[in-house]
Amino acid sequence: MPVVLAVSLGGGLGALARYGVGLAFPAAPGAFPWGTFVVNAAGCFLMGVLMVLATELVRAHRLVRPFLGVGVLGGFTTFSTYAVETRQLLADAPGVAVAYLIGTVLTAIVAVLAGVWLVRRLARRP
């Protein structure tokens, strides 16, 4: 039950943060949805950071990964909005849709790897 509560609380916080970004950076029809793109890229970067910290460097409490990883970052990032926006863009602006579709996936992968690399690099001892 503690894990479920940690994920639920974290998910609520992450979803609220994502909603705030969506309000701050709304996408016009046919325009590149920068808010969702940045949220997903930032969430992937932070997931890379978190996984290295929680699994390699810090002896974290057992609820840290469920709360931050599954909860906060899972609630913050959004595949559903990405899919809906891509579908709408296909109807309104197919070229933008393809750029968004491919750009998001590539950026997400690079962002995770960058987060992992950065924490491992910073953690090196002289």
UniProtKB/TrEMBL annotation:
Transmembrane segments: 33-54, 66-84, 96-119
Subcellular location: Cell membrane
Residues reported to bind Na(+): 74, 77
Family listed: Belongs to the fluoride channel Fluc/FEX (TC 1.A.43) family.
Reported function: Fluoride-specific ion channel. Important for reducing fluoride concentration in the cell, thus reducing its toxicity.
Protein name: Fluoride-specific ion channel FluC
Species, as recorded: Kibdelosporangium persicum
Stated regulation of activity: Na(+) is not transported, but it plays an essential structural role and its presence is essential for fluoride channel function.
Entry keywords, A to Z: Cell membrane, Ion channel, Ion transport, Membrane, Metal-binding, Sodium, Transmembrane, Transmembrane helix, Transport
UniProt keyword Cell membrane, yes or no: yes
Main localization, broad class: membrane
InterPro entries the UniProt entry points to: FluC
Catalytic activity: fluoride(in) = fluoride(out)
Membrane topology field: Multi-pass membrane protein
Pfam families: CRCB
Keyword rRNA-binding: no
